[in-house]
# Entry
Amino acid sequence: MPSTSSAPGKVYLFGEHAVVYGEPAIPCAIERRARVTVTERDDDRLRVSASDLTLDGFTVEYGGVDRRPDVDVPTPLIEAAMGYVDAALAEARDAADRPSAGFDVEIESDIPLGAGLGSSAAVAVAGIDAATRELGCDLDPGEVAERAYAVERTVQDGQASRADTFCSAMGGAVRVEGADCETIDAPALPFVVGYDGASHDTGELVAGVRALREEYSFASDTVAAIGDLVRRGEAALADEDVAELGRLMDFDHGLLCALGVSARSLDEMVWAAREAGALGAKLTGAGGGGCIVALDPDDGTETALSLTPACAETFRAELAREGVRVE
Ligand code: MEV
# Structure
C-alpha cells in the first residue's frame, strides 16, 4: 500500500539568513503543499518521479541505494531536488532501521522549487513522513522536523537553520532561535506573494552572507539588527498590529539588501507592492531571485504585481494551520 504525506511551504515574516547565526526568525506556513507518495519495493532500487510548477516533470531510476541516478540529468534544479529526496529517504531508512529498503517515490508540488517558499523543506518533511509510515514506523511531527533539518544540513553543506523544516512540519506561525523552536499565535495575515519565475541555490546564498560577515563588521551588525527587528516583530504579532508588522518587513528587506541577497526583480516587486498600498513588503527565503511577500488586505498589491514585468506570478497565500499530514 502506498503512503502519501503532504507538507506546506512557507514565507518568512522576518529573520531569514540571520537565523543561521542564532538570531530568532518567524516563518509562517502557507497553503501551498508538496505531496510525496512512497511505495516500498521488493528490491533495493529507487525510482523517483516528480511534477512541479517549475519542472515539466522528470523520472530518474537508481541502480541501488548508494548510486547516483543512472540517467544523465544535467539540470541543477533536478540535481538539487534529488539531493533532498535522497537524504530524506536515508533518514527514513535510519528511523525504521531498514538500511537497504528500496522505494518508488512520486512528488507533486505546488511550491515552486528554489523560489524561497520552502519547497525543499516541504519535500523533505513529507518524504520522511511518508517513507517512515511506509516502513511501519510512525514519527511525531517534532521528530520529522528534526530529521528534515538533518537533510537540509547535509544538502546545504552544514549551512541551514531549523526554521524551514520546523515550520513545514508543524504548520502555522513559528518562532525559531537556534535549537529552540515553538509554534506561536498569529492572526490571519493578508499575505500576497510575487514570484519572478527564477530559482536560487540556498547553500550558495547562505555561504555568501557568511563570507560577507567574515570580511565586514557591518554585515555582523546587520545580522544582529535583523535579530532586534524580529523581537519587535514578535511584540507586533502578539498585539495583532498588522501596520507595524508591515513597517518592520520593509526594514527587514532593507537589511537583507545590505547583506547582498536581494535582486533587481525582487526589489522591483517589493516597490510595486509598496506603491500599490501594501503595508509592507520584503523578499522571502534565501533571496537572489524567487519570491517576495507583502501584506495587503486589499487587491492593490496583486493587481500591481500582475502588471509588473519582473513578476511572473502572483497569488494570495493563506496561513496553513496544519503542518505535515497524511493524505
Ligand atoms: C532559506 O529558506 C532560509 C535561510 O535562512 C537559510 C536557513 O535558514 O536554513 C536563508
